[in-house]
Amino acid sequence: MKIAIVGAGIVGVTTAYELASDGHEVTVFEQRSAAAEEASFAPAGLLAPHLLSPWAAPGFGHPLRLTGANATLRLAGGMGRANLAWLWRWRSAARQQNAAAGALERLAQYSLARLKTIATQHELDFEASDGRLILLRSEPERQALQPALQVLRDCGVKALDIDADAARKIEPGLSPEATLAGAIHLPEAWAGNCRLFAQLLRQGTQGSGVHFAFGTRVERIGSSPTGVAVQGEAELRRFDAVVLCAGMASAELLPNLGVPLPMTAVYGYSVSAPLRESTHAPRASVVDLAQQISITRLGQRVRIAGGAELSGSDAAHHAPTLQRLYRTLNDWFPGGAQLSSGLQIWRGARTMLPDGAPIVGASGLPGLWLNTGHGAGGWALACGSARAVADLVAQREPEIPLDGLGMRRF
User: Each residue of 187-215: pLDDT tens digit?
Assistant: First the structure.
C-alpha cells in the first residue's frame, strides 16, 4: 500500500518504520525541517513502567492541585471555553481513578519490548539506562501510590517497596541531607534519549521504503478520496491510507473531518545540563513524586523535567517552574550537574486527552488511522502503538488488546 503519515515526531517515525517493515511505501509529511523537533525534542526520557511517570495519568499517586506553589497544573493566561471543558473532563478522569490506566501500562510494557527489539536489531545507541526510583518524602505519599502500584503489579511489573538506605545504595549520588522516607524501586524500568532514537531510526528507514517530506505542511486530510492536501498545492495527493501522528496539528485537522477529539496542549519543561561529577549524579532515573519532576541520566548529561501549564505556544518561560527544576535537582543530587553554563532549556507541548491515554486505531473514516494524543507518554508508548497500528492497517489482530485506547471512549 501507499501510505501517508502526518508528523515526524517519535510516534510518526516509529509508525513509518513499522509500516515500511511490512512492505508498504511510506511518505512522512513534517512541517519542521527535521524529525523530532517539537514534542519529541527534549522530553523527560522515561520509558516503561509508565504509570508512575509525571503526568502519565491524572490522579495516580498524587493529588490534583490547581493553586499554590506546587500546583499540578498551572493555568496561565485566559481560559477559553475549550480549555475549561477539557479541565473538567481531566478532573473527572482523576476522580474515576482513570479507567484507561491498565490499558496504558500494558501498551507501555509492549512498547518497551518492541523498542528493545528494534534497538538490538539495528544497533541503536540512544543513551539508554535501566532502573528507576520513585522517591518518597513521606509515608502518606507511599499510601497514595497504592492504587497505581496495584495496576502495575496486575500488569506484571516488578515494583519493590524499599527504605531510604536501600534507595541510596541503588542511587549512591542521592544527598544524605535530603528528606527521604523510602522509595519504590522499578528495576526493569528504562530511560533514554527520545530525539536521538528518532533520528537514528529515521536515518535507518530513509531509502528503505520511507520518504520524509520535511518543511511540508499538511493543510487538509481527504477521506473520499483518501489523501493529503499540502500547503501551496491545489491538488490532493492521493494515498491508500493516511495515519495521523501529528500532535497538536491533529487537533486542527480532525474537526474538518467531523472527528473532534478533546485534545489540548499541556506545556512542560526540561533542562539538560552537562554532567559535573558522576558520583553525585543519578546512575539512571528518579522521580520526585511530590514535585512531579524526573531526573534522568542521558550519557554525559542530566535532564530534569517537569511542570505543566495550560497556555499558548508563544508564552514566555515560567521562571518559578524552572527554578523548581533546579531546586529539585539540588535537593537530590547537589553537585551532580553543571548549572552555570551549557544548559539546554526547553518548553514543549504534550498533546493530551483528558485521561492521559492516546487514540490508537481506526478513525471511523475510510482510510484514516489515528496514532495521536500520547500526552506525556509519546516516547514510552511510541514503538508499541506504531506496531499496533501497522497490524491494524494490515487487517491483523494486534499482539495486545487496545481496549480503552480507541475513539469510543469519547
Answer: 999 999 999 999 999 998 877 889 999 99
